[in-house]
Write a structure and sequence with these properties.
InterPro entries: Hopene-cyclase (IPR006400), SQ_cyclase_C (IPR032696), SQ_cyclase_N (IPR032697), Squalene_cyclase (IPR018333), Terpenoid_cyclase/PrenylTrfase (IPR008930). The protein has 500 residues and is an all-alpha fold. 44% of the residues lie in helices and 3% in strands. The radius of gyration is 24 Å and the shape is globular.
């Protein structure tokens, strides 16, 4: 069938057949790339324009425009209950042409978002649900869309020693690689070390350069750019990975510096375009802080929107500071956002890591990179909070329950990654050196040194990564290694009077 056209039997096909997957780091040749409205760049398939104002009606602009008192007085259960009853009746007696059009649009929306390896959204759950939906629509299992989708699930499979098979929810190769690169560089590897150059080459190969994803709906004029979290997810690059990748590339003396500079320029323009109106950055979207969707009765899975967060904003601000853009108005707005989002106790909330230790460990180095002195009250309040939360053994820990109970923020069994985050903040706050000033950092570094395994890593059974707070947490296998190496490297250099 032609790109984006109808297959025999009426089923749609992708804009182009998805080729073999990128396997463990080798990126497959991408299919003809559709834009977010559904028109393939090779001209195949009609566009599916979104109705004017649709996103505004569901998102932040309309919600923020309504007076909060009016929203509070709406009987949401009654309203959505009535809508639900109407839809049940309509489902039994639909307007058939309208129903057919709706199903066709939903079907096409899914298939044009299939990635080169056959997955949807770069992770396992949406791939599974897309397979189910397409089967319900009548796609046979031997249809190319489903065969490649099913094959992509093998990449999320882990075969255990007892022969059982476990399906991972997602994989994080880009995130792991940029953090490992930063850690190795901060620990003393030379900038032209072959390992760092090889990592930089791989990260450069993962840049999103063609596909316009859903992020572009409210900002169609922003050029394509950035990096995604996974092997294949060009539709959904994210700001967090993009910032950390560029921070990693800055630490490498690449034999082709013009290649790195070009990628950094494109990535920077994309990140600038993703800054929300309030000055902060979310991970995947701009200005995605509406509350209306949370009023739906079955909206019971926590985070349904992607508002700016302290950790993502901090990583961008740190990048801009290290690039020498501390005086740029966009950097200053990000700094102001961070200062205004500090908690009353001096910590920062962690959206993508558990929790206040992660947020604080990211924000303090960012503020310093942006030019704030270590003596700044916000920085010293954060350092004081960390010192107050240090465990008797010298480490730091925080339980996932802190997302439910603020009083438990910074409280938990010591872990390698969380101790490293606290240490990174204390180093940036100039809490290093002789006497009481550097006592907490010294004890934290000593805890990391004493708990290192003979193989050179750390044991960490606790989940310190966050997917959806209160519902879904992540145990990153490399967190127990990259963060301690990064922190100890910076600590050693701080003792020597150097900055990273």
């Amino acid at each position: 069938a032609p790109a984006g056209g109808a297959a025999p039997g009426g089923a749609l096909v992708p804009a182009a057949p998805a080729p073999a997957a990128r396997r463990r780091g080798r990126k497959a040749a991408a299919p003809a790339v559709p834009d977010v409205a559904g028109r393939a760049k090779d001209g195949g398939g009609p566009p599916i324009p979104l109705p004017d104002g649709l996103l505004r009606g569901l998102g932040a602009r309309v919600t923020r425009g309504l007076k909060s008192t009016a929203l509070e007085h709406v009987n949401w259960a009654l309203l959505f209950g009535g809508i639900d009853k109407f839809l049940h009746v309509y489902h039994r007696h639909p307007i058939r042409p309208l129903r057919a059009l709706a199903l066709s649009m939903a079907e096409r929306w899914m298939i044009i978002r299939q990635e080169a390896d056959g997955c949807f959204g770069g992770i396992q759950p949406p791939t599974v649900y897309s397979i189910i939906a397409l089967r319900v629509l009548g796609y046979p299992l031997d249809h190319p869309i489903l065969t490649t989708a099913l094959r992509s699930l093998d990449d999320y499979s882990v075969i255990r020693p007892d022969g059982s098979r476990m399906q991972e929810a997602c994989q994080s190769p880009v995130w792991d690689t940029c953090l490992a690169t930063i850690a190795l560089a901060d620990a003393g590897l030379t900038r032209d070390d072959p390992a760092l150059v090889k990592a930089a080459d791989w990260m450069l190969s993962q840049e999103v350069t063609e596909r316009r994803g859903d992020w572009s709906v409210p900002i169609p004029d922003v050029p394509v750019g950035g990096w995604a979290f996974e092997f294949e997810n060009d539709t959904y690059p994210d700001v967090d990975d993009s910032a950390e990748v560029m921070l990693a590339l800055m630490r490498v003396n690449h034999p082709k510096p013009e290649k790195v500079m070009a990628a950094t320029y494109r990535g920077l323009q994309w990140v600038f375009g993703m800054q929300s109106a309030d000055g902060g950055w979310g991970a995947f979207d701009i200005n995605n802080f509406g509350q209306l969707v949370y009023k739906i009765p079955f909206a019971d899975f926590g985070m349904l929107t992607d508002p700016p967060s302290a950790d993502v904003t901090a990583h961008v601000v740190e990048l801009l500071g290290e690039l020498g853009l501390a005086d740029d108005p966009r950097t200053k707005r990000g700094v102001e956002w961070l200062l205004h989002s500090q908690e009353a106790d001096g910590s920062w909330y962690g959206r993508w890591g558990v929790n206040h230790i992660y947020g604080t460990g990211g924000v303090v180095p960012a503020l310093r990179a942006a030019g704030l002195p270590a003596s700044h009250p916000a920085i010293q309040r954060a350092a004081d909070w960390l010192v107050s939360r240090q465990n008797p053994d010298g480490g730091w820990g925080e339980d996932c329950y802190s997302y439910n109970d603020m009083s438990t923020a910074g409280v938990g069994v010591s872990t390698a990654s969380q101790t490293a985050w606290a240490l990174l903040a204390l180093i940036a706050a100039d809490r290093v050196g002789e006497g009481e000033k550097g006592a907490a950092a010294a004890r934290g570094a000593a805890w990391l040194a004493s708990t290192q395994t003979p193989e050179g890593t750390w044991d960490e059974d606790h989940f310190t990564g966050t997917g959806f707070a209160g519902y879904f947490y992540i145990n990153y296998n490399l967190y127990r290694l990259v963060w301690p190496v990064m922190a100890l490297g910076r600590y050693h250099r701080a003792l020597q009077g150097e900055s990273h």
